[in-house]
Amino acid sequence: MTSAGTISETTHRVNYSEIDQMGVVYHARYLVWLDVARCEHLRLTGLSYRELEERGFRMVVAELGMRYLRGARYDDEVRVRCWVREVASRKVVFGYALHRVGDGELLATATTAMFTLDASMRPARLPNDVASRLLTTPDPVRID
After folding, report:
1. pLDDT in tens, 34-80
2. What is the pTM assigned to this prediction?
């Protein structure tokens, strides 16, 4: 977490299996990195996704927006920053910025809107104690 406690960071080194024939990371691989970043962000708030499931709740991706700016390549180290943009009774919107560690170049930005479901997969309210841990943060980069 940053000093404000609202932006988390994960890093990932691109492996050979993630690149396509053009030598850049296949677009869908970025979604896996977002998932890892989001789960780690939740963990840093003091609640793991596993604990949320044990309490009978699920957070599912309902909307995804991604802007690819530059391609990551084999052996690049990529830093994924994650933060909460919005919290509502049944929805949490996360923002992401992906940078190449070596030169700091912004590779992509993204958002995911997560909807809360109960164990029977019906819409549910996010528990108050969970929502109170998810502090919103202004976007540190421009997201379109």
Report:
1. 999 999 999 999 989 999 999 999 999 999 999 999 999 999 999 99
2. 0.93
Domain range for 89? 7-131
Quick: pLDDT tens for 17-31: 999 999 999 999 999
CA distance 29 to 18: 7
What's 38's domain CATH number? 3.10.129.10
- Sort 120 into a burial class: Cβ within 10 Å, 0-12 / 13-18 / 19+: exposed
Distance CA(38)–CA(32), nearest Å, equals 10
Residue 79 lies in a domain: yes
Q: Amino acid letter at 91?
A: K
- Tell me the backbone φ, ψ of residue 40, rounded to 5 degrees: -70, -35
Cα angle value 140/143/144 (rounded, 5°): 160
CB 107 within 8 A of CB 99: yes
Q: Catalytic positions, please?
A: 20
Picking from 25, 27, 53, 29, the residue whose alpha carbon sits closest to that of residue 39 is 53
